[in-house]
Amino acid sequence: MKVTDLIKHSTKPFTSIEIIPPKKGTRMETLFGELEGLMRYKPAFMSVTSHAHERTIEEVNGKKIERIKNKRLDTNAICIAAQSRFGVVPTPHVICRGFTKDETEDMLLTLRFHGLENVLALRGDGPPNDGEFANIYASDLVEQMQRMNRGEYLDPMENADKTDFCIGVAGYPEKHFEAPDFDTDLKNLKKKIDAGSHFIITQMFFDNTAFYSFRDEIARRGINVPVIPGIKPLYKKQHLEALPRIFYTKIPQAVQDSINRFEKEEDIYRAGIDSTIAQCKDLLAHGVPGIHFYSMSVAKPTSDVLEGLK
């Protein structure tokens, strides 16, 4: 089922989750063991992050060759396996960086063959792509997906079968860190929507007022697709320093104080989870269609938040 249909037909706010593929050499059962703890809350869909392939030049027997490697298990394989095992609606991240347009087209057709209908189109991290054979921005990637939805492929074919992907993109309530200002960032978001995106999932945030301002502003700019807030449960004191540094987000002082007043690990954990529950309750009171949890493939914190919201 498409994410937009899930939103349209939901009679109450839904839960969705995001997971990270484990590193190569990890047993799939390790990941699925964590997922089982979240599946009892019946998430509407599950997104799976993607990471650019690393391309290096190595010398073998006196010859320089290109080596392509990935440090994590395959995103699409996890989606297909999770769909089969849990019946969850998978939404793989599809990124620009590290992939040519031909590789992207092949990957999307494989996803469609396995019955996947939803994708999240992102630029991705890592070195930029160059040349005519790669998508540079997420808006370019959305345009390629929509051309495939019209049956237009890189190599023209008569009467080509059309895809029918439901396309999500990322939004940044506190501005993408590379954007020079908030106005420019929102113009880039509008490009992604005008290219044919169907819904938005936000980057994690901890100040709900930033999300409400973001939601109001994009509505004024004519962006009327569903906006799903992305939430990261707090449960470690290290989060107070690491998350703002890595994800360019701000944690309100009141939240920091509520966690910093404790020293014992179990008290810090409980204070963080209670803060996340309070944040989610406020979002639900303000009419969000659902909440997307950045679980980082660790079940217990998200499960404890969901238990507190029941």
Automatic annotation (TrEMBL):
**What is this protein identified as?**
Methylenetetrahydrofolate reductase
Q: Which GO terms describe its cellular component?
A: cytosol
| Keywords on record | FAD, Flavoprotein, Oxidoreductase
A biological process (GO) annotation for this entry? tetrahydrofolate interconversion
Catalytic activity reads: (6S)-5-methyl-5,6,7,8-tetrahydrofolate + NAD(+) = (6R)-5,10-methylene-5,6,7,8-tetrahydrofolate + NADH + H(+)
Q: In which pathway does it act?
A: One-carbon metabolism; tetrahydrofolate interconversion
Q: What is the lineage of its organism?
A: Bacteria, Candidatus Kaiseribacteriota
- Quote the Pfam families the UniProt record gives: MTHFR (PF02219)
Which cofactors, by name? FAD
Q: Could you tell me one molecular function GO term of this UniProt entry? A: FAD binding
In which family does this protein belong, per the annotation? Belongs to the methylenetetrahydrofolate reductase family.
Tell me which InterPro entries the record gives.
FAD-linked_oxidoreductase-like, Mehydrof_redctse-like
